[in-house]
Amino acid sequence: MKNPLISAIFPCYNVANYLPDLFASLEQFDYPNTEFIFVNDGSKDNTLQLLQEFCKDKDNCMIVDQENQKLCMARNNGLAKAKGEYIWFCDPDDIPSPYILTYLYRNMVEHNADISICNYKKVKENFHFENCKNPKNSQKIQLFDQESAMCQYFSCKKFDLNVWCKLYKNDILKKFESYPNVFDKKVIYGEDVDFNSKYLMFCKKCVYTTTNLYYYRQRKSSIVHSDFNESRLTTFIGINNAIKRYEGKFPQVQKYIKSLKGLVSIEMLYYIYKSEYSDKQTIEDLLYNLKSNMKYIVSCKRNHLYRRIFVPLTYPLFKLFLANRMRKNSK
Fold first, then answer.
1. Is there a domain that residue 300 lies in?
2. Does residue 312 belong to any structural domain of this protein?
3. pLDDT at residue 136, as a whole number
4. Which of 45, 217, 240, 298 lies 20 to 30 A from 136 at CA?
């Protein structure tokens, strides 16, 4: 029986320094039926040249070359070209295990799941492919029904908010009204929350393996590690969409989303504290989000224990630390 096609989508923007490690992994991919779709999103370095060299004479490789449209549209435009029964999104500055699709697909089929998730390992920026380890033959598998998967997702305790450790069914993605524009282009930061909250609405079962099959490179220049700017606040678009989406359907899940809203507010306040940013209204809104959602952070039992214990301390601390900045801004 032939293995179904999996479409792997790579949104590429100025990632020339990291492509050799990605290519080294892709050359050893052991899933036998994969198409690689590289979306060059207006790169200014030699990303496009390296992609062209790698894809030359490879029937399973495609390059979509476009002007810069940001991450969400790069993924959407890659999906528009995808022919696979299954979809996998990968960030090209990270390093996937060559076995990732085999594991994700096998687990999905064996357990009749609608989404398959693996664990990942954070690595330093200078980490290279040769340091990747072969996964162990034995896996620890965990299964979740729809509501449990949602709660686990928004608590970030077992699996994270990302898309790159997850295998999706294209038939489910096609149920999105906006398909193939499944990612909201208005969300510049935290776009995966909005996307996954939509996808999980169609999932009856989730399968998760604790095996590390992806190496997440900690880039100092990435948006996750960059200084605060207001584009970070677009993450609340996805979170607020998820709260509305689950209203009246999954009340327990809604509590976890509101808990996430409070936790993300802490993250934003921390970046503001480290920067010179001083907009009073934004800081007050974030403090309000934190205070009003504190009860969910504390009461949601799937949240990490340290968050449930120490997060209540963050509100008075941020209010104190940022008070002078807000006073100066209000004069």
1. yes
2. yes
3. 75
4. 217
> What whole-number distance in Å separates Cα of residue 100 and Cα of residue 212?
9
CB 80 within 8 A of CB 180: yes
**Whole-angstrom distance, CA of residue 80 vs CA of residue 179:** 8
Together in a domain, 238 and 196: no
Residue indicated by tokens 């179904």 = 4
Name the domain boundary from 192, 224, 256.
224
Which of 33, 38, 71, 75 has the alpha carbon at shortest distance from 54?
38
> For the chain, first and last CA: distance in Å?
72
The parent domain of residue 232 ranges over 227-330
Looking only at the bridges linking them, the beta strands covering 61-66 and 115-124 are unpaired
Residue pLDDT, tens place only, 184-237: 999 999 999 999 999 999 999 999 999 999 999 997 755 555 578 899 999 999
| Residue showing tokens 């499944």 | 182
Answer yes or no: is 27 within a domain.
yes
Give how many domains the chain has, as a whole number. 2
Q: Write the pLDDT tens digit of every residue in 241-283.
A: 999 999 999 999 999 999 999 999 999 999 999 998 989 999 9
